[in-house]
Structure formats: structure tokens, C-alpha cells
Amino acid sequence: MASTLAGVPLRDGRLSHDIDPSDRAPQDACGVFGVWVPPTEASRAEVAKLTYYGLYALQHRGQESAGIAVSDGSRIVVFKDMGLVAQVFDESVLNTLRGHLAVGHCRYSTTGSPTWENAQPTFRSTGHGGLALTHNGNLINTPELARKLDRGELTATTDTEVLTALLATREGGPLAAAREILPVTRGAYSLVFMDENVLYAARDPEGIRPLVLGQWEDSGWVVASETAALDIVGARFVREIEPGEMVAIDADGVRSERFAEARPKGCLFEYVYLARPDTTIAGRSVQATRVEVGRRLAMEHPVEADMVIPTPESGTPAAIGYAEASGIPYGQGLVKNSYVGRTFIQPSQTIRQLGIRLKLNPLREAIEGKRLVVVDDSIVRGNTQRQVVSLLRDAGAAEVHVRISSPPVSWPCFYGIDFATRAELIAGRLDVEGIRSWIGADSLGFISLDELIAASRIDKDRLCRACFDGVYPIPVEEDARGKHLLEPTR
């Protein structure tokens, strides 16, 4: 394992790999979590474990690395490594992380390479002590921010490292530094950070990535990327951190201030795929939204068929809705191997050629001779759907009709989702008929953008829809729009 004490690495970790890395699903930048509890002997032993379980609940948001920073009021200790939360931490490690406030992070890289140095929390010594910071999102003016730093002040290649360095090197402590730096920071950022005594959280003025506040027992406080993480640790949801808001939490309670005017543009793709189905966003259940999307998808793209099946697990809620609205029976046609995904073993070429069969296996007796509607959440590169269609035909399906519970993903994301370059996005170069032909389906239907927005019950103008319509709420240079992300700071 790897850890830092006062920010110094003790041992490098190892990088995990996907079993099927050629067509990974959309990846969010990361999950963030923070907790403050009154400093008692019992709480000092529980804070790291609360953070561990919070990160476990957010594991879907990032699987490359995990880390926790804990303070006992006098010093900050950081422990982080490459791998899943359960691979990085065990009981013995958690027992050494004692304190009354902590921040935690699970990462998927969108800027900076997937190395131990870029794992979070990031740590910096300051004139007042220490600063540990976690970040979900992606900044689009990192080079401009980096020019505010002296040469040699950066030790990693991420936008998060630049932000941490700026907050640590300004006079007056983290709060004063954040008041200066956050108003000139552009892009998506949900931040949870801490010094030795105070837990802080801040969200960009557009509120692109989610961030929520919860109360733990009577006097503890929790901040997390999703409400599901609050549920897991037994915290009560209080409210969302507002766009352009910063909060500070310590023995005096929760203090709030605004550093920018709110311009809400929440990520619509959170409803499609990124968030857990048991999470609530803007008062709306993600599960309920996805089922409603399926109903609307059935109305927009009906077909005569014998059974509706999902591509597990992300297609399941929409498949339920499609079956309800269409009257076509819902069934299980594909079995997912839940233990395939992240591993420390790099697959050989022979194993990689098995492709989707490592993850999905057809129920032949259920699908043979049937006309199937296969519901999935999105198509990014198209390789997975092509393999699924082939798998079902080989198992004896008479027809395979694919229905997608999002519009075509045609544009890259600059705000924290690892979508490919526009040239790699299949919808960036092919129309619907071209995609249908490529994946080999008998028919293909995407829900319209208007119907997806209607299912979310959020006003169109309060949503970021850039990956679907190319309208970026935070301006991006025209010559960068066909690319994936701006070059990371090095």
C-alpha cells in the first residue's frame, strides 16, 4: 500500500486495469466525501471508517485510486493508493487513521495520468498547518491558474494539484484563499477539503457535478457526491450544496457563504448513467427518472416484440419502464458476472478476445426464437452494443431491437466525464441508421433530448446537455470542441 505522512510518499501502488478496456462505459471523474464529528475518543476511531463506507458507496464514480485524509486537530495524515476502496484500505490501516474530521476520494482520471502521484486527497503544507483537498469535476482554465504559481510548486499533473497549491500558498488560511481563488476558477468542481480543524465544501457556480450535505447523529456533519453515500453511513440528508456556495464546518456548526452568483447547469448525464439509482438529485429519484425515461422511450420508439430485456445493470430501470408502457413482458436475457470489472491482472490477448462474454452470458432458453427489445443507457463507441447484438443472435434470438435511454452522445465532455474525442464517439461520425448498421440491430431508437429532459423534471435551461447538443454552459474554445479535454498541466 502507499500512504503519505505530511505529503511524502512512502511506497508506490499498482495500477488496476479493465478486463475489457477497449470500450469502457462513460467514467465520471471521481467521488468525494467528507465528515466532521465532535472530537471524542469514540469519534476519533470512527471517522476513517465512516469515510471508508462513504467511499464504498461512491465506488462507481471512480475505480483507479482511493484515499483518505484524517485530522486529530493537530496534524493531517493522508493514506492513498491505486485500486478500489476495499483494495486500498483494510481494518489495520483504518485503525491507524484517527481523528474527528476526514476527507475521502475515489478517482477516475480525466486530466493527469493515472499514477500514484495524481491520486487524491492532495496535500500541501501551509503557513497555518496543512491542507488536504478532494475534487470531482474538471477545470478548463488550468494553465491560466497555474501561471499564478511559482515554478517548481507543482508536483503532480492534475488540475486538482494546481488548485491545492493555490489554496495552500495564499495568505490568511484556506477560507481566505478560497474567497480569492474560486471566483476565477472555471469549469466543474465539487470540492471537499480540510485543514486541521475545519471541513470545507464548495461547488462551482454552475453546479455541474453534484454535492450534498447531511447530518450524522445529533452533531456530526457529512458532505458527499451523492445522497446514497449519506444513506450508507446513516446520515440524514439536509440539502444540496448550492452552486457558487462554500460551507465551513467545525465546532461552531455549518457556516455558509457565496463566492459567486448561482448559474445552475446540473449534468443531465447523471440521470442517464453516472449516479446510483438510489440517489436523489434536485428532489427527484434517479431510479424514478430512469423508469420514466423507459416509458417515454417506448412511446417514441415502439416495436412489435416478445420480450424486453436490459443490458445489466445500467439498462434495467429504463427496460422496466419500456415494458410497462409497451405491454411487452419484461424478462432477463443476459446474466452479468458481477466480479468482472477491475482487476490487478492484465488480461492476455486470448482472454481479451472473448470480449463481452467475460461480463455477460445469454440465457439461451429464455431468448431462443424470441423478438427482443434490448434497452441500454447510452452508446459511446458502439463496440459493446455490437457484441451484445452478436451474442444474442448466436444464442438464437429471432430479432434484436436496441433502444437507448439517452440521445446520441455526439460531443466530448470538458467538465469531468471521460467521453472520447468527437472522432471516437460513434454518434459524432454516424447517423442513427449508420449506428444501427454498425451494431447489427434490426432497429435502433434513441430517446429524444426533449423527452429525457421532461423525465428529469428540471427546466432545460438549468441542465448541462453539452454531450448531446454541443452547447457548453461554460465557454470552451471552438478549436477544442472536437477534442476530449484540454491539455493537463504538467
Automatic annotation (TrEMBL):
It comes from the Bacteria. The keyword Iron-sulfur applies. Gene3D superfamilies: 3.40.50.2020, Glutamine Phosphoribosylpyrophosphate, subunit 1, domain 1. Mg(2+) binds at residues 314, 376-377. Binds 1 [4Fe-4S] cluster per subunit. Binds 1 Mg(2+) ion per subunit. Its cofactor is [4Fe-4S] cluster; Mg(2+). It catalyses: 5-phospho-beta-D-ribosylamine + L-glutamate + diphosphate = 5-phospho-alpha-D-ribose 1-diphosphate + L-glutamine + H2O. Pathway: Purine metabolism; IMP biosynthesis via de novo pathway; N(1)-(5-phospho-D-ribosyl)glycinamide from 5-phospho-alpha-D-ribose 1-diphosphate: step 1/2. This is Amidophosphoribosyltransferase. It comes from Actinomadura macrotermitis. The gene is purF.
